[in-house]
């Protein structure tokens, strides 16, 4: 067998693997981190990658810096600094829609340039929702702008988004001079300005007037109350399954839980037999109470009756790491576990008000919850279940805020001069993490929990796939084919194509995956075309962050998708024109800010 045949076989294998990975991302067959790490594993098992290649993958500093940014962002959140910015926004936002959008841009964009934008959006969502309720405004007019502004703000610095860190790290291993902290700021600021101007002019006219889940229940449903009844010795309900009793069949009555003695019975209601002395807690309208015959059913009402005010109505959104993901409300035994009722679920533009208890919950689902205020706390303590009804007032370490602020500012300042100091940026990232841990701004358990390990492992997996493209020579083959296709096209045209490809792909799959795969290709293609790769890497950076047309391309879009009661088409209608404007802007300005020069 010749030397060429194994290489050809490996190229065909890697090409097929890349296609399958993209399909798996797009069709959501399994989790993206599983897909990426599975691809890396296959490359190792087939011999496409060896030990030295594996060392190149796990020896990259970018994933570690990304993990450090998760921790530093969490320290700002844990010490109350992000919440303080949000509260300040609430005080100065005013009452008009345009002013609210402008103030939002002035606060969120700079914050997103130095902090992971996911916690920024998570903190600002309930503040915006609360502001909208107070001013009788539609939240759907502001949540898409919140996500778009945070995305644009992240492009302003090297640490503003993980795609910038990844692309810069890959480019440096390909021989490019390291990117500086604020190198992307000149175009990033233009992106922020255009995005903000678009949202207060054209975009504002395209934003929908959608209702959130709670508004579906503002009239009749908010007059419902919680009460409880004791099962008497002669009750006809004794010995029957709770869900088969006449009480559970009465219209507009929802049984929440059954208590025996001083404890809540954990057995699911569809398996629990009623016993003498049980306390049945349920929700009802006053009209429905008329249908209940205390004597006929053997019930005594009024035992420590729960006041109407204690029946709180709240909204929450399920985050990507929530333990609720992948399970149905029935499977979770939700009512008995938390002592609250789920009135409705919002998913992908639909408000599910009935028959949703068997549906498996997903990231981005918004739940409308009703129950006693005290029991809401247990529910919202779940990891990454975000309270949309009011800002989360956790026990914050406000006295440690100076340390968290010093860590992020120190990382920013020293990172800006990393090249002059001849020190890798990862050293300053680790120093910042060390400071917030030693100072107590965040503890070790919180630090490990703050890291989105799915993102980190997906990055490593995609770096492995990118390494496979390189070592098999497939990257060079793709670059050669691209060069032949475009022929004598100008560098400006090629930059526009690279940006467009990155922007289109990032609407469908992970932005980190797009940056990881396209950056080395952009470097090889630009060199074969005779250009300096730097402008093309910049095109990948900005294109990979330009997710405006779908709610699935960027995590912040997915968060606001459910919270704002949006439909999928709302993102396409509002975001597609912005995406086109930014594409044209980037295609024209990248060659100006990073002049096209001969490469070699």
Overview of this structure, please?
This protein is α+β, with helices and mostly antiparallel strands. The protein has helices at residues 4-27, 32-45, 51-58, 62-78, 81-92, 97-114, 117-135, 143-154, 162-173, 185-200, 202-206, 246-249, 286-289, 294-297, 334-338, 373-380, 401-416, 418-421, 425-439, 444-450, 453-471, 474-486, 491-506, 511-528, 534-545, 555-563, 568-593; strands at 225-231, 253-260, 263-264, 279-284, 299-301, 311-318, 341-347, 350-352, 366-372, 385-387. The strands form two sheets. Strands 3-2-4-1-5 form a five-stranded antiparallel β-sheet. It has a five-stranded antiparallel β-sheet with strand order 8-7-9-6-10. A hairpin with a 2-residue loop joins strand 2 and strand 3 (263-264). The two termini are 35 Å apart. Residues 218-223 and 302-309 have low confidence and may be disordered.
């Amino acid at each position: 067998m010749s030397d060429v045949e194994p290489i050809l076989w490996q190229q065909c294998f890697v090409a097929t693997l890349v296609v399958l990975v993209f399909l798996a991302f797009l069709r959501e067959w399994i989790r993206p981190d599983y897909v990426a790490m599975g691809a890396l594993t296959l490359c190792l098992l087939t011999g496409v990658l060896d030990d030295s290649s594996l060392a190149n993958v796990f020896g990259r500093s970018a994933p570690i810096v990304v993990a450090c940014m998760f921790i530093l962002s969490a320290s700002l959140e844990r010490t109350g600094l992000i919440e303080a910015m949000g509260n300040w926004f609430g005080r100065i936002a005013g009452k008009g829609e345009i002013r609210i959008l402008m103030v939002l841009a002035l606060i969120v964009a700079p914050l997103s340039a130095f902090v992971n934008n996911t916690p920024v959006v998570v903190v600002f969502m309930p503040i915006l929702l609360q502001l909208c309720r107070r001013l009788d405004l539609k939240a759907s007019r502001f949540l898409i702008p919140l996500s778009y502004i945070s995305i644009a703000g992240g492009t302003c610095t090297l640490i503003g988004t993980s795609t910038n860190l990844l692309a810069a790290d890959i480019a440096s291993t390909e021989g490019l001079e390291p990117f500086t902290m604020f190198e992307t700021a000149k175009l990033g600021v233009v992106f922020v300005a255009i995005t903000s101007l678009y949202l207060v002019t054209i975009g504002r006219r395209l934003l929908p007037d959608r209702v959130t889940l709670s508004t579906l229940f503002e009239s009749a449903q908010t007059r419902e109350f919680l009460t409880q009844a004791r099962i008497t010795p002669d009750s006809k309900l004794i010995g029957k399954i709770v869900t088969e009793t006449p009480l559970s069949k009465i219209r507009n009555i929802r049984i929440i839980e059954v208590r025996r003695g001083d404890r809540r019975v954990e057995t699911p209601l569809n398996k629990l037999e009623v016993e003498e002395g049980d306390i049945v807690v349920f929700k009802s309208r006053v009209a429905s109470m008329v249908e209940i015959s205390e004597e006929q059913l053997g019930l005594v009402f009024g035992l420590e009756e729960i006041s109407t005010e204690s029946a709180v109505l709240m909204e929450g959104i399920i985050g990507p790491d929530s333990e609720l993901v992948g399970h149905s409300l029935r499977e979770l035994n939700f009512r008995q576990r938390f002592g609250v009722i789920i009135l409705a679920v919002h998913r992908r533009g639909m408000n599910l008000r009935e028959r949703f208890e068997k549906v498996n919950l997903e990231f981005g689902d918004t739940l409308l919850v009703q129950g006693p205020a005290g029991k809401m706390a247990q529910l919202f303590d779940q990891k990454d279940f975000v309270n949309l009804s009011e800002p989360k007032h956790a026990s914050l370490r406000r006295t440690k805020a100076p340390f968290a602020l010093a860590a992020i500012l120190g990382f920013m300042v020293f990172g800006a001069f990393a090249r002059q100091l001849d020190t890798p940026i990862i050293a300053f990232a680790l120093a910042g993490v060390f400071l917030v841990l030693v100072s107590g701004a965040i503890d070790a358990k919180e630090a490990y929990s703050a890291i989105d390990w799915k993102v980190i492992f997906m990055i490593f997996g995609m770096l492995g796939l990118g390494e496979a493209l390189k070592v098999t020579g497939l990257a060079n083959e793709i670059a050669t084919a691209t060069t032949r296709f475009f022929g004598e096209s100008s560098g400006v045209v090629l930059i526009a194509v690279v940006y467009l490809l990155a922007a289109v792909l990032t609407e469908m799959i992970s932005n980190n995956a797009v940056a990881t795969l396209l950056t080395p290709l952009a470097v090889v293609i630009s060199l074969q075309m005779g250009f300096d790769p730097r402008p093309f890497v910049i095109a990948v950076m900005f294109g990979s962050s330009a997710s405006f047309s779908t709610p699935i391309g960027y995590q912040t879009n997915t968060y606001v998708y459910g919270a704002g009661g949006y439909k999928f088409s709302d993102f396409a209608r509002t975001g597609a024109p912005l995406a086109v404007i930014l594409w044209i802007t980037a295609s024209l300005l990248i060659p100006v800010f990073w002049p096209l020069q001969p490469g070699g």
